[in-house]
Design a protein that fits this description.
alpha/beta, Aconitase, domain 3, 3 domains, five-stranded parallel sheet
Length: 425
């Protein structure tokens, strides 16, 4: 077994010289480092915490203990979504299965802020709350954020989950293992999308379909995608990373020509030959898209967009579509999820007022597939998000129709949605 070597400062943390909270956190970090076979720790520049989402009393017990011990984050730290919308508390209903949700969920979210983390409460901190640079080591939780940081920003984070994320933030350290290491970032699998129709200017759902296929094929492997344009907008990359991390466990995908480390396929492969090359067809993309819908079409009770959290540009496009025709139909709940930071910018730009006047509900701090936001009895939901489509059926017990953003707006007006799959768009 590889021996873990600590610096003098790290040993002091472990021994308690920098306080009991840091010592507890360092015990967690070093235990995980040994389990990962790391020979040292690495200093991190940023942390993103998923532990603020309430799953039960143990999570609350842990953060209470860190707070009692005087814990404070020592690197800039953002918070992922919680179980509530603290800005608009009336939007989240009661959960009969979790009667303590409102009290415990609120305390959990605010307790992490008490440790010095920024109360961002977003699954997409990379949109403007945090933009780590190329090669910077960070400790991020939340699957789409991990994939985006590695794949689009070129920062370096392994997969971090509850408790380990905040321990990294309190110590400023993470195990030097996994995707922190050069050799672990080499692609082994190649998805060649060159022959997918319209790939030079792919529609929103073409990218979702490619991402869904990537997740199913790659699993946890690092992959390279060939054929996507080098000027692909961040919103498209966000969608690709999110669904690939949902249908699989993709934490790094080299979008050749777009990922900072992958200006060429050879660079993505680190000069080696690919272990597998998969040629992607339009029919395969269409099948993946169709598989994300549990029903191909039908009457809908709700429409949910903005998963991951909608950017300012996405809110602007949604407002444009929503205000060019009738308002949301009576009996249909239309929800867009966004961060409180983006919400503030959208409010200044007049987008919040425009969307609300069109009948849309803006949800911050949480997500509509996590919190009890949709009316009881909701049976079928239209969405433009591959991630929402992948998680909501199990989380909420609803059927899903995957369509475009424009299709979601139309469904909100008519109460009827038609899914995609016969062709990507």
């Amino acid at each position: 077994m590889t021996a873990l070597c600590l610096t003098a400062d790290e040993q002091e943390m472990l021994d308690g010289a920098q306080g009991p909270a840091v010592a507890l956190a360092m015990r967690v970090v070093t235990s995980f480092a040994r389990a990962r076979g790391a020979d040292r720790l690495v200093e991190i520049a940023h942390a993103h915490i998923d532990s603020c989402l309430y799953h039960g009393p143990v999570g609350l017990d842990f953060v209470r203990r860190l707070r009692e011990l005087g814990g404070r984050v020592r690197v800039p730290t953002t918070l992922n979504v919680g179980a509530l919308d603290l800005l608009h508390p009336s939007l989240v209903g009661e959960d009969p299965d979790v009667p303590e949700l409102h009290t415990a969920g609120r305390e959990l979210m605010t307790a992490y802020a008490d440790l010095g983390a920024r109360p961002t409460y977003t699954c997409a901190p990379y949109q403007h709350e945090a933009r780590p640079g190329l090669g910077e080591h960070i400790a991020w939780a939340e699957s789409n954020a991990i994939a985006f940081a590695n794949s689009v920003l070129g920062a370096r984070t392994d997969r971090y989950g509850d408790f380990l994320d905040i321990c990294a933030a309190l110590t400023g350290r993470a195990p030097y293992a996994g995707l922190h290491r050069d050799e672990q970032r080499a692609a082994r699998l190649v998805l060649d999308c060159t022959d997918v129709p319209g790939i030079a200017d792919p529609g929103e759902l073409t990218v979702v379909g490619i991402g869904a296929l990537l997740g199913r094929i790659a699993g946890t492997e690092v992959a390279a995608v060939v054929g996507l344009p080098s000027d692909l907008p961040e919103e498209r990359l966000k969608a690709l990373c999110a669904v690939a991390a949902s249908t699989g466990s993709v934490a790094l995908v080299h979008v050749v020509g777009r990922t900072p480390e992958a200006t060429t396929l050879d660079a993505a492969l680190h000069g080696r030959r690919a272990e597998r090359v998969v040629t992607v067809t339009g029919e395969e993309v269409a099948r993946e898209l169709a598989s994300l819908s549990t029903v191909p079409a039908g009457l809908v009770d709700a429409v949910c967009v903005g998963t991951p959290h909608a950017s300012l540009a996405e809110l602007g496009e949604l407002a444009r579509l929503a205000t060019e025709g009738p308002v949301v139909r009576a009996g249909v709940r239309a929800v867009v999820n966004t961060s409180r930071g983006t919400f503030a910018l959208a409010q200044e730009a007049g987008l919040v007022a425009a969307l609300r006047s069109a009948g849309w509900t803006l949800l911050t701090d949480t997500c509509s597939y996590i919190a009890p936001v949709l009316p009881r009895g909701t049976r079928t939901v239209a969405t433009d998000s591959g991630k929402w489509a992948a998680y909501a059926p199990a989380n909420l017990g609803v059927d899903v129709v995957l369509t475009t953003t424009a299709g979601c707006v139309e469904a909100s007006r008519t109460g009827f949605a038609t899914g995609v799959g016969r062709h990507a768009g």
